[in-house]
Write a structure and sequence with these properties.
Elements: H1 2-17, E1 35-39, E2 42-47, E3 52-62, E4 73-83, E5 92-102, E6 113-118, E7 121-127, E8 129-135, E9 139-149, H2 150-158, E10 162-166, E11 169-171, H3 175-186
Antiparallel strand pairs: 1-2, 2-3, 3-4, 4-5, 5-9, 6-7, 6-10, 8-9, 10-11
Helix pairs in contact: 2-3
Length: about 190
């Protein structure tokens, strides 16, 4: 599952490279990174042509990697990057939610409102736009993307408590996830 999310991240990076934020999001590469530094759940990936670096982290905010092949889950990928050899402060941080359900239809298609609260204050309240919905009858994969300004990302990273809700489902956001996001932030200028 992690490989699928990483592959999806690369596809999304191509899409986002054409957006107004192109200067802060690396272009995807057909091959694998030439170098990867892994620290816990975080990967700092380096590419050759063009020379780029990206930071990413993937979490299961509902479900787990062990049960993802046959049970409902919501995965969250967080990433940013830039051209060059070293990570610089991005203007925005990209997020992708992968909501996969089995035999239940598309669980969030009709209610994909996301709320993220930090320390009991709402940081984000937004209806997400679906990047892709694939429903085979046996499995539905819903991919939603959103971005947040780097300043809001810093608020998220510095929070003591984070709560997430997608539709009517509360999602877990553990201290381990915050630790990973702090590692991403601390990698700026370092990796």
């Amino acid at each position: 599952m992690r490989r699928l999310l990483i592959a999806l991240m690369l596809v999304l990076m191509v899409a986002f490279s054409n957006s107004a934020q192109a200067q802060s999001t690396p272009q995807a590469h057909p091959g694998q990174p030439v170098k990867t530094i892994k620290i816990g759940k975080v990967r700092f990936s380096y590419y050759d042509v063009p020379e780029t670096v990206a930071a990413s982290a993937t979490f299961y905010v509902n479900g787990s990697e062990v049960t993802a092949h046959n049970r409902n889950f919501v995965g969250l990928m967080v990433y940013f990057g830039n051209r060059g050899k070293n990570l610089i402060t991005p203007s925005v941080v990209q997020f992708m939610l992968d909501a996969t359900t089995y035999r239940d239809g598309c669980k969030y298609k009709d209610n994909h409102h996301l709320i993220i609260s930090v320390d009991n204050q709402i940081l984000i309240s937004s209806d997400l736009s679906a990047q892709q919905i694939s429903d085979t009858g046996k499995r539905c994969i819903e991919l939603y993307t959103f971005e947040m300004p780097y300043e809001q990302f810093v608020q998220l990273v510095n929070a003591r408590k984070v709560e997430m809700r997608l539709g009517s489902k509360e999602l877990k956001f553990t201290e381990d996830y915050l630790k990973a996001l702090r590692t991403m932030r601390d990698g700026i200028g370092r990796y």
